[in-house]
Amino acid sequence: MVINILNIPNYYTSYYLLGLSLKYKIRFKQEEQFIKFNNKPLLIFTVKGKIGVIDNDDPSSVVNELYELSSLYFVTNKLRDNQSYNQCKVKSLFPHYPVNILFLYLKTFGVNLFRYLKFKDLIREIYIYIRRPFYKNQIKIKVKDNYVFFSARLWKKEIEANRIRSEFIKFCKNEDRIKFEGGFMPRVDGDSLGFEKDINGKRYSARKFSKRSSCSKLVLNNPAVGGAVSWRLAEYLNQGLFVLSFPFNIELPEDFVNKKNIHFIESTNQYKSVFDLIIENSTYHEKVSSNGKKYFDEFCAPEKQAQYIVTSILGIE
Description:
The chain has helices at 14-23, 64-69, 102-109, 112-116, 119-131, 159-174, 206-213, 232-238, 271-280, 282-300, 302-314; strands spanning 2-5, 25-28, 42-47, 50-55, 72-75, 78-79, 90-92, 147-152, 179-184, 219-221, 243-245, 250-251, 263-264. The chain is of the alpha/beta class. The protein folds into 2 domains: 2-135, no CATH class; 147-300, Rossmann fold (3-Layer(aba) Sandwich), CATH 3.40.50.2000. The strands form 4 sheets. The chain has a 6-stranded mixed beta sheet. Strands 10-11-13 form a 3-stranded parallel beta sheet. The protein has a two-stranded antiparallel sheet with strand order 6-12. A hairpin with a 2-residue loop joins strand 3 and strand 4. Helix 1 (14-23) packs across helix 11. The longest helix is centred in the C-terminal third of the chain and has 19 residues, at 282-300. The radius of gyration is 20 Å and the shape is globular.
């Protein structure tokens, strides 16, 4: 089956371009009406004459022009209380994360990259791809010690997310049983937003972040920009880690089950009780982390998401 790619998406959509290429034959066919959507977090394609749109942007609303043209419109962050996302053709996606697909990117779009993208934009995309980790279906390893890694950026407009992460950093630093590495990365503008004591002063590349996270006893999935689910969630699940999370504001095609494949909490005051639990009950820790990995393998892997997307579109009468 051939999937025609109708625009040149940016690195936000890399996971889905990879998935489509693994499951189907992809072919670039620039449509003039979609040129204005090049180098954006949107992947526009056709399968058997039906148009599909994958919108990997931060949550706001659908692109009305694309919604009207599409058979189905898939969004990464389908906020439950967002009227735009509650339209009948909008479908949710499973967690994902940007990966290094530079070779696939260059192979798929070739000289068209120079034709349709500004040179500085192309160089930026290449630079970002080089720094992203390659996708690999990870083999789950058993974490033996109490090492916890957590590093994050401070967001000026996300006060609650900053607080949740700050409390996690403080807990890890103050808990004698935890060997902690990380903290907030310094902002480029030098503004610590009142979190000076939580600044690490060190930046981690995407690859180093991934490597250190894979050894973490537990990981925090915090709310991201605008109520989105962090890219890190899918990577954590792929690594088979114990994911501690606040409830989602978005819909998923298949919900997580609390205390089966994820551990949900409602308050930062619960950090200690959860850590006590996984230290005292290694069986529970292993159960949740293993089932999280199973969730990833069944639903989130690139080829599984590609199949879900294409099957959904072809299933429309």
